[in-house]
Specification:
Number of strands: 2
CATH topology of the largest domain: MetI-like fold
CATH class of the largest domain: Mainly Alpha
CATH superfamily of the largest domain: MetI-like
Radius of gyration: 25 Å
Strand content: under 5%
Structural class: mainly alpha
Length: 562
């Protein structure tokens, strides 16, 4: 007799839920994810089809097609995302290939460069580019003497997003290229294939899924980007900024929600393609340890152009980011380059509250996101029960959902009783946790999959409860992933802007929003001071978390980024 899958699932769930703490944790996490991830998104969809008179209406969607501004925002977003994704993926691939296949010195600079966008405010690149190439830019105005330089708009956004997001492609592709068994490429060369033909017919096809995944991840980041279009977009409106302009600027909540749904659909479709299709496709064959180490390419005709390009881009990235602390000491950028501490005095005087509020909220959100991520990873990898698929999908969904969509969803969901959280610290902390959660979960899942379940099963056989097994066995074994999740959660909370710009109130002030206000007012010295303070706080947190990790007995481990 054929076994009923549903009955089997119920039986498995009952067996899993015999431990009350597992049952409470699973049910509690399902409720939390529905409340803070799924429900706000459903509210956005609901609001998009409700007219001002409270009746169902598709007017807002027709306006997206018929209103020139909305239609242009859609076209602009797609155009920008496609171009940026192509450029960022190509540059990221060249960096990854340079790291894994070329014999050069100074490769560590690439890893440091890849970390800079993580620890900096999301509009740092835009701010630096304005200071270099804007109307009063150091290069455009002071050095070249251009009087009508205009970096705002499409070209400025392409440059800014490409520099900001190509490290994502680099980090993803570097691991894949390094994991290729060198004997596969060696076999092609032994059969007489040239280096170029081996690269074209062997290396590239092996990492084709990674290339496609990198393209999609950059695409998602580009369409969801809010800070850079606000800072340097000028009249080039994108969907993310249009949501804010309609919902906050024009008080058209239905119109803003409809645009948010369009942006949400794009992001979720790309996320599903990336996670459930591309991640299943892998042509990289790892057969154990290779018989010999990879023979790195030393041919100057290959090394010099590729490595030269990569080091040139690295130098540009470092110049862009080092400009931020330098500008914080310049009196009036573009006019008076004398040194001053006035910007820091102003930053601590006027922005002291924002520094305190941002840091405290991030400190509260960080352990919540870190621990919740490990618990979810434990449940997804080690336990089988009805609802596990919902936990897995919805917990990772927020990595694809644009921050502006989360922000407008929270306003619609938590603005009225029984859960009236608008204006409180709770809604900001919830936004921080939801945005930071997916990376911690991924790190936890990766670590758990490398640990033999027999270790935990042995403790359970000796009478330990699932809670005790998780606390005394599992968590210590995945502490590197746990602390990596903490680092990312703190960084993401400190640098968040797209979601929280909808949620800030007179009760709390956030550093990123205050900094963006200074950029829009062309007060680059103060904005640079705020950014420098934020970066120093983030690095201090990374140092503290690394010290904590060493104190727990992992002296050779450090956490830079997950």
């Amino acid at each position: 007799m054929k076994k009923n899958p549903f009955s089997s699932a119920i039986a498995t769930t009952r067996a899993t839920f015999r431990d009350p703490m597992v049952a409470i944790s699973a049910v509690g996490i399902i409720l939390l994810l529905f409340l803070f991830v799924v429900w706000p998104l459903l509210e956005v969809v609901k609001q998009s089809v409700i007219g001002p008179d409270g009746t169902a209406s598709l007017t807002a969607y027709f306006k997206i097609i018929t209103t020139r501004q909305n239609y242009q925002a859609f076209v602009n977003t797609m155009q920008l995302a496609i171009i940026v994704s192509i450029l960022a993926t190509i540059i990221g691939f060249l960096f990854a290939y340079c790291t894994s296949h070329l014999a050069i010195h100074g490769k560590k600079a690439f890893s440091l460069m890849a970390m800079l966008p993580m620890v900096s405010p999301p509009f740092s690149v835009a701010m630096s580019i304005i200071m270099l190439f804007g109307a009063r830019g150091l290069i455009s105005y002071t050095i070249l003497g251009m009087r009508d330089a205009n970096i705002y708009g499409f070209m400025g956004l392409v440059f800014t997003q490409t520099i900001s997001y190509f490290p994502i492609a680099y980090l993803l592709l570097a691991g894949m290229l390094q994991s290729i068994d060198p004997s596969i490429e060696d076999a092609a060369r032994d059969l007489g294939s040239s280096k170029w033909r081996t690269f074209r017919t062997v290396t590239v096809p092996l990492v084709r899924p990674g290339i496609a995944n990198a393209f999609l991840l950059v695409f998602i980041k580009s369409v969801a980007d809010f800070a850079n279009p606000m800072a340097i977009g000028g009249n080039y409106i994108t969907l993310a900024t249009q949501i804010y302009l309609q919902a906050i600027g024009s008080y058209d909540i239905q119109g803003g929600a409809a645009v948010a749904v369009v942006l949400l659909d794009i992001a979720i479709i790309l996320f599903i393609i990336s996670k459930y299709w591309l991640e299943k496709k892998s042509y990289v064959t790892i057969t154990g340890k290779a018989t010999q180490a990879r023979v790195l390419i030393r041919d100057r005709s290959i090394v010099w152009p590729v490595a030269g390009f990569c080091f040139l881009v690295t130098a540009i990235v470092f110049l862009i980011y080092i400009l931020i602390p330098i500008a914080s000491f310049i009196k009036v950028w573009g006019m008076n380059y004398s040194l001053t501490l006035d910007h820091y005095r102003y930053a601590f005087d006027v922005g002291g509250r924002a520094i305190k509020d941002t840091t405290m909220l991030a400190i509260i959100a960080t352990p919540i996101a870190g621990l919740l991520g490990m618990v979810i990873a434990f449940l997804v990898v080690r336990k089988k029960f009805i609802g596990r698929g919902f936990i897995n999908f919805s917990s990772l969904l927020s990595i694809a959902v644009p921050g502006t969509v989360i922000g407008i969803g929270y306003i619609l969901t938590f603005n009225t009783p029984p859960l009236q959280l608008t204006g409180t610290a709770a809604i900001l902390i919830a936004a921080f946790v939801v945005r930071a959660l997916p990376i911690g979960i991924r790190a936890g899942v990766s670590s758990l999959e490398q640990i033999d379940p027999a270790i935990e099963e042995a403790a359970a056989d000796l009478g330990s409860s699932a809670t005790k097994v998780f606390r005394t066995i599992t968590l210590p074994l995945i502490r590197n992933a746990f602390f990596g999740g903490l680092v990312y959660a703190f960084i993401r909370s400190m640098t968040s802007i797209s979601a929280v710009i909808f949620l800030v109130s007179a009760n709390y002030s956030l550093l990123t929003i205050l900094t963006l206000d200074q950029v829009e007012d062309s007060r680059y010295g103060v904005a640079s001071a705020f950014s420098t303070i934020l970066i120093l706080i983030v690095y201090a947190a990374i140092l503290i978390i690394n010290l904590m990790l060493r104190q727990m007995g992992s002296k050779n481990s450090t956490v830079n980024h997950p």
